[in-house]
Amino acid sequence: MRIAAEGTSTHPLAVLPAALVSAAAVVLFWAMLDAPGYALLAAGLVTAAWTDRTGRSHRLTHDLALIVVALTGISFISLHADVSPAGIARFTVALGWAVLAPYLISRHLYRERSITFPWGGRRWTRRQWTYLVFVVGAAYLILPFYFLTSGVYRNWPAVVEWHEIARLFVGVNAVGLWDELFFICTCFALLRRHFSQGVANVLQATIFVSFLWELGYQAWGPLLTIPFALIQGWIFAWTKNLLYVVTVHLLFDAIVFLVIVHAHHPDALPIFPLVPG
Fold this sequence. Notes:
The chain is an all-alpha fold. Helices cover 70% and strands 0% of the residues. It contains 9 helices and no strands.
């Protein structure tokens, strides 16, 4: 039995192992419960092996194992924002592992090219450029209201010194870039080998949003992060252009950075006059 082509679905039972792995992310990063999360990861691999053996899927275990390896590595650190040198070092090691380990295992152990990072592509269309403008405008109007009224800006440090502000800027944008490398080019791409675009997108978005929750996008943040994660997956499937989805994300994160600084120091950066203090 061959791996399902993109745009098709395998046997419905094959969705169960992938759903268990995605649910593990909710438990690990949202509920922050390690033991039940690891149990769900293990259950996902066991049921994937069973679906492979019974012919309901093909090599699903191999692909889910790559996601499990990455999620396990991420779970070893706290995802709460920390822009200290030690905090940045922890993030670099754990998030670097999550991208590099699946890529290297797939390329050198599996001898496959299931994970790629397609930076090039067609010239951006007028619709794509228009969407970039829309993202900036929507982020400017929505993010200040979200961060300030919910108080979640306190999940990020109140940076004061120029080097702290610089590290916050680099950290916010580096994580935004990593989001696309891992959730879209790794998780979404691997899941698309077995499931339809819609199913794979929901599964990757579940992992994506769970990570963002622990990172700090809490309170009613999922009302923003769920659509964002789904749209990013859809845009990548449409454009097949990593540079474009990264540009979208980094424009969004540039506003996030400005809002966090403004929230902690409203007099120093009064650029969001539409939001009540």
